[in-house]
Amino acid sequence: MPAKTPAPAPLKYSVRQAAAALNVSTTYAYRMITLGRLVAVLDGERRFITSAELRRYVESLPTVPVAPRPKPRSVGRPRRAVEAIA
Question: What pLDDT is attached to residue 70?
Answer without folding.
Answer: 80
